[in-house]
Give the backbone structure.
Amino acid sequence: MHDDVTTARPAAGHGTGHPVRRSVGDHAAAVRDLVAPALAAARGSGTETVEVAALLARAASGAAPFPCVLARDTVAAVALPGFDNSQMDGYAVRAADLAAAGAGTPVELPVGAPVPAGTQPPPLDPGTAAPVMTGAPVPAGADAVVRIEDADPPRFPEPSPDPTTVVRFAAPVEAGTFVRRAGSDVAVGDLLLPAGTPVGGAQLGALVAAGVATVDLAPPPHVLLVSTGSELVPAGERPGPAQVHDANGAALTAALAASGARVTHRVVPDVPDALRRTLAEAPGEVVLVVTTGGVSAGAYEVVRQTLDDAWFGHVAVQPGGPQGLGTVTLGTGRDVPLVAFPGNPVSAFVSFELFLRPVLARATGAEPARRATGRAPLAEPLDSPPALHQVRRGRLDDDGRVRMVGGPGSHLLTHLAAATILVHVPPGVAHLPAGDPVDYWELR
């Protein structure tokens, strides 16, 4: 391991210093261009073979690796459907037996033994109709199903019908009607789910249905999260004079984990050597470093002072203006992306939502990869700095109107916790009266 980790390189195409403020879109693109290739490379660097039954148990318990992504193509072990089965409750028939049926000349057939789901029926005798339930096997010899509501009478007889029970049909039926053919969804050995597919509920259902015993999963990306600030103490420790609990570490650890990452969290003071040691001692699997604090223009900006080759500048957003981006060399000698957020808790959280979460969620299959969006009228007037893209915290009231939760201050963490939406006010807007529509992202 190297003990001289002191610098980071700027993201491609970006220099150092204080450029003109970037737009939110430009910075989001810069983060994506830097981070997405590293996450993709990490996904292909190793696999974990997991039994599908164990994966289902993990999903039920909420444990890792959810969300997760398939590392290799997965093929079906059994056909879907595994046998011809009925799409409807109705009568299994031979289409040829109903060829002459008409409204005034119904065809009358004796009723055979019923076919409930989960039973293997005998072959259907010619000139017979067998009651068949949805999902039950279509008897050999039958090639169509007539819905029960299209039969006369439009109801099934008792489970053990009288041998003389008959049913009438007033229309012909085409062969294949309401029959799900074996293998019509997927055949044995066919591609079921390609590599790179995020595994969610629908995918787990397909894996189980297709008889897949094991899958190869990509490892969750390992993120080193570093909270900087001599005033910070980790959760559970008693703060000293002029110290505060590390809210950023708690909020972003949870947010990163919910986005599919494995997180190692560290708290370091505003001392360059402490940050250097933390980077030098980073776990070997780390593929991304995220820092909070130390990126602005103060006298003790430890991230900016230590990693002086990265890009540090301002984005035209409130909160979250100061940002950093580059590539840092860890103690293992590997280069990994660095995404540096400001230190105020709301600024750090909003920065994560705007710039990093979309990239990470796409790579890991976390849902939703993009926050659900909406547009609704303001319940109250709103002021915004016209040069900035303002992101306010809010809720929808019972009338579907947007109400602000707290002010624009980047320290109002309890108001962030109470918010259910992030309200977006674009640049160029200084004031919006009540009733004007605004765009928002859903947080929950």
